[in-house]
Amino acid sequence: MRETDLIARPGFPQIVARRELPVPRSSVFRAFIEPDLLSRWIGPDNLETTVEILEPRHGGRWRYVHRDGLGNTYVFHGVYHGDPTEERIVQTYEFDSEPGVVYLNTIDLDQIVGGTLLSQATVFQSVDHRDRYLRTGAAAAINHSFSRLEALLLAEI
User: Fold this and answer.
1) How many angstroms separate the CA atoms of 142 and 18, rounded?
2) For 71-100, how does the pLDDT look when each residue is reduced to its tens digit (9 = 90+)?
3) How many domains are there within the chain?
4) pLDDT digits (tens, 9 = 90+) for 4-53
5) Which CATH number does the domain housing residue 150 bear?
6) The domain containing residue 96 runs over which residues?
7) Residue 82 gets which letter from DSSP?
8) How many other β-carbons are positioned within 10 Å of the β-carbon of residue 97?
9) Beta pairing class for 102-112 and 48-54
10) Distance between CA 46 and CA 137 in Å, rounded?
């Protein structure tokens, strides 16, 4: 299985995560917009994920909840900007425990020989917000989620 390339340039409030997936772009797109697929790959293995809202259209909302074995919940939500396509998904991203801190995610799905290049650019409100995000272990979490995504899609094909 491949690793995710993560780029966080000094002084720039953005993270770019890239991963080549050996599956068709249409399959990757489905995994982002179908609740039953999304809940099976997003987040760590030790948390159960429930997709409560997923409205993949301009102005549509999304919301999912991670639950640990002790009953703690971690809630994430956002809004789609523009209609998601197999080429691009643009959405905001917020964590309920940090009200008012909003990230902008642009997810590009490019067809490449043998599969799809998934590129996720996340823009933060400041370099400080980005650095705090990275200190939470986000790099490992992104790589883990994308690994789960790849395994799921390979099993589904």
Assistant:
1) 10
2) 999 999 999 999 999 999 999 999 998 899
3) 1
4) 999 999 999 999 999 999 999 999 999 999 999 999 999 888 889 999 99
5) 3.30.530.20
6) 5-156
7) S
8) 10
9) unpaired
10) 15
